[in-house]
Amino acid sequence: MAHLFTPKKVGAYALSHRVVLAPMTRLRTIQPGDIPSPMMADFYGQRASAGGLEIVEGVSISIAARSYLGAASFYHDGQVEGWKAIANAVHARGGRVFMQLIHGGRQSHVEMTGGVAPVAPSVVPFEGVALTKDGFVPVSPHRALGIEEIPGVIEEFRVAAQRALDAGFDGVELHGANGYLVDQFIQDGTNKRTDAYGGPIENRVRFLREAVEALISVWGADRVGVRISPSGEWGAISDANPEATFSYVARVLDEYKIAYLHVIEPRIKGDDTLHEGHAPVAAKYLREHFSGPIIVAGGFDGESAEAIIESGDADLVAFGRHFSSNPDLPFRLQHKLPLTPYVRAAFWGGDEKHYTDFPAYQPAQQPETTV
Ligand SMILES: Cc1cc2nc3c(=O)[nH]c(=O)nc-3n(C[C@H](O)[C@H](O)[C@H](O)COP(=O)(O)O)c2cc1C
């Protein structure tokens, strides 16, 4: 039976444990230009461990793909050195690091997209927020992507993947979760198209397929992962039949033999637990449809992570909030040490405080919370 600290091969890599850093946008790039900052390199370096996997926060693939001021992006040469420093910081400690690539789609504002209307598969009323210099503000009205524009967006994914490769990353993860552009194409609440990209599920996954193929063209399938959030509610996303839709998505991705499928459990909405006390359900039904490694995320502690790996429903567990305040989380889980509580007020922007100043476990530390 597998455990949290049983080695696991994930695509091209032999990992020595199954505690993964979940992608977390922390809005700490240098402005203007979304330059990856030295404190970001510190953050990822601190959380690296020998044979461990980290997935770097959502990285916008173009100006039009941006959603949050201060969030990461990778579309110009001035960002190369910053991203190299992050990859180097993880490698220096023997870790592996994938870059999550994102297009925000309708979850944006003209101030973030270079003055143009945010794009989506279809125009559907949406009351979300974007983050601009004025704080969280209502999103700008979006427009539907013309079918002739889609190859250009796919090409942006390919170019960003190439940049990640050139910067020394170990792989890329396509952000197909949380109601951003890829997810907007997959789910029928946001995809009302009548062309080859809309209607039946075979068509609604066409955009996903093309984006995955673009990433594979750069990296090979064994260095590409995909994140999904079946029944997730972030970004007001919805589908008439999430289980059928995402089971189909899992089967499609299985064909490509990608490195892993990364699943957010529906008890989570974005950065918070929505349904306290709900058991994980999504990885369980997706397991039937995906034969490669499954990374599960959302609301896990050491005990429940161990349980889901032992059950066989998932192979690895990604931790977000607990990893934010416990840079040595794998060590602490392995030795059943207490965890330092996370600080929500520092999640969305700020400086080093409650970002890179959380210490590794000190033997004299008083238990602050038990897991
Ligand atoms: C501050 C913050 C930022 C996040 N940013 C991202 C992101 O960029 N991409 C993503 O896929 N998920 C993002 N998430 C979601 C996490 O990856 C994860 O799914 C969520 O925190 C649930 O896991 P947890 O219960 O271990 O925290 C974010 C979460 C937090 C708390």
UniProtKB/TrEMBL annotation:
<feature type="domain" description="NADH:flavin oxidoreductase/NADH oxidase N-terminal">
    <location>
        <begin position="4"/>
        <end position="339"/>
    </location>
</feature>
<dbReference type="GO" id="GO:0005829">
    <property type="term" value="C:cytosol"/>
</dbReference>
<protein>
    <submittedName>
        <fullName>Alkene reductase</fullName>
    </submittedName>
</protein>
<dbReference type="InterPro" id="IPR045247">
    <property type="entry name" value="Oye-like"/>
</dbReference>
<dbReference type="GO" id="GO:0010181">
    <property type="term" value="F:FMN binding"/>
</dbReference>
<dbReference type="Pfam" id="PF00724">
    <property type="entry name" value="Oxidored_FMN"/>
</dbReference>
<dbReference type="InterPro" id="IPR001155">
    <property type="entry name" value="OxRdtase_FMN_N"/>
</dbReference>
<dbReference type="GO" id="GO:0016628">
    <property type="term" value="F:oxidoreductase activity, acting on the CH-CH group of donors, NAD or NADP as acceptor"/>
</dbReference>
<comment type="similarity">
    <text>Belongs to the NADH:flavin oxidoreductase/NADH oxidase family.</text>
</comment>
<dbReference type="InterPro" id="IPR013785">
    <property type="entry name" value="Aldolase_TIM"/>
</dbReference>
<keyword id="KW-0560">Oxidoreductase</keyword>
